[in-house]
Amino acid sequence: MKTIHAAVIGFGFMGKTHTYGYKTIPLFYEPDFNIRLAAVCAGKYEHALAAKERYGFAHAAHNLDEILALPDIDVIDICTPNALHAEAILKALDAQKNIYCEKPVACGEAETKRILAHPNLNKVVTQTVFNNRFLPAAKLAKQLMQQERLGKILSFRTHMIMPSNVDASKPMRWRNSRRAAGGGVLYDLGAHVMDMLTWLAGPIKSVYTKNQTAYARRPDGKGGSVPVDTDDASYSIVTLANGAVGTAEASKLATGTNTDLFIEIHGDKGALKIDFMDPNWLYFYDASAPLKGYLRVETVQDYAGADSFPPPKHPVGWIRGHADALYEFLRAVNENHPASPSLEEGLYVQSVLDAMYRSAKENKEISL
Description:
With 368 residues, the protein is an alpha/beta fold. The protein folds into 2 domains: 2-132, NAD(P)-binding Rossmann-like Domain (Rossmann fold), CATH 3.40.50; 135-299 and 346-367, Dihydrodipicolinate Reductase, domain 2 (2-Layer Sandwich), CATH 3.30.360. It has 11 helices and 17 strands. The protein is globular, with a radius of gyration of 21 Å.
């Protein structure tokens, strides 16, 4: 069998999440390829060394250039802070390496254009890590939308909310800094919101956005404070190209929540809703049914068919979506065909997010 040699760039929370995927895919799916953890680098070399020893990477590197100099790298897996994504993507494209990249793919229009213009973009397999697409309820929702079971889409509401920025005493982190994160909650959580919406309901016509920063300054962890230049919450009225209008919210100011991702879509023939805090079910409403009410459809562990592990009747968890997303990418690499969501799809979502930032800044509706 072919062996895919993967290098993970950045080893914080998401680097560990992706490594979980690489190590567990052979248990979940029995793939017709092997996976080798070829190299890892992190913000600090000692963190890369620790990851090498703990998780079995073949090499600990100081940086991406050192990894690209190795002779056997097939995949560059990008888990760095947002502002470093574009540089890593461009270097990987220069070297014609397959790319698996966390969202947001880029920070701003200029970076988006540079990536889209790269001559090697369509010569390699690329995928943006929109892991929520790969949960069973989302897959079933996509099937229903493709079958036009909802009819003409009229309205929707979607949000991803959590409480992580509620506490004013929480020290400044890289996600609170535009320099490192490129943006605030709109890039961090809004990317998932807008990907799910556009994947299920179609492209965007216009956005009208208002952003919120709860605290102008945060502790710097050294006894002082520093200014916050990113948003903690974002609220948008969104119009789709098909004419539907609805709301989209991304917030880290939602006391009483965890990581609540929710989408509800209404058409003239039916409706559906997914609550990712209750991910084992899809709720579907058929307006033509004689008995009215939402049908609670079990989706549980329905990933790769009857031979997948664990069996379909077991409940699903968040991290399994990451494993499934990575598996589909590696299958595309092994079989040399395009993956989805590609970097181009990720960059489309990026263009929507940047239009939302422009709308908030100019206090007007922005057309795409």
